Amino acid sequence: MHSGNTIKTHTGIHQTLCGTPRETSNGCSVIDFTATDEMKADSTGLVHGGFIFGLADYAAMIAVNHPNVVLASADVSFRKPVAVGDNLIARAEIVETNGKKHNVAVEVFNKEELVFKGTFSCAVLDDHVMKGR
Question: Could you tell me which residues come within 8 angstroms of residue 31 by beta carbon, excluding any fewer than 6 positions away?
């Protein structure tokens, strides 16, 4: 269940794939995520890293929480593998703002263990990125 500010961005996200917002406020977000069988990369149950990146990206977007926010770049590291059935928590916080650019620190945990860490450079555009397409 979400608590905090109204979500203003990425409202069409399929939460099974990118997580469910639990908290949003003042440049921070917390997103819950459960790795499903459809996310596995092989027969061991290893979850493809793209899903973990998607979770972290979504957490960064929700931390900025502007309808026209886009990802400009990311510097990330995968620390531990994630398996089908793992319940993850992504925590994001804006750590620097320079005009319309925001650097957002994101950490993803499996229980108490850090599995992913990154800095996401986000830009708030004057118009939606798809305007005029």
Answer: 18, 19, 20, 21, 22, 55, 58, 59, 62, 89, 90, 92
Q: What pLDDT was estimated at residue 129?
A: 92
pLDDT in tens, 31-45: 999 999 999 999 999
**CA-to-CA distance for 34 and 26, rounded, in angstroms?**
25
Residues 6 or more apart whose Cβ sits within 8 Å of residue 22: 1, 2, 3, 30, 31, 32, 89
What is the distance, to the nearest Å, from the Cα of residue 20 to the centroid of all Cα atoms in its chain? 10
pLDDT of residue 26: 87
Fold type of domain 14-124: Thiol Ester Dehydrase; Chain A (3.10.129)
> Structural domain boundaries of the chain?
14-124
- Give yes or no for a contact between 60 and 24, defined as CB atoms under 8 angstroms apart: no
64: helix, strand or coil: helix
Is the entire prediction scored with pTM above 0.90? Answer: yes
Phi, psi of 102 (to 5 degrees): -130, 130
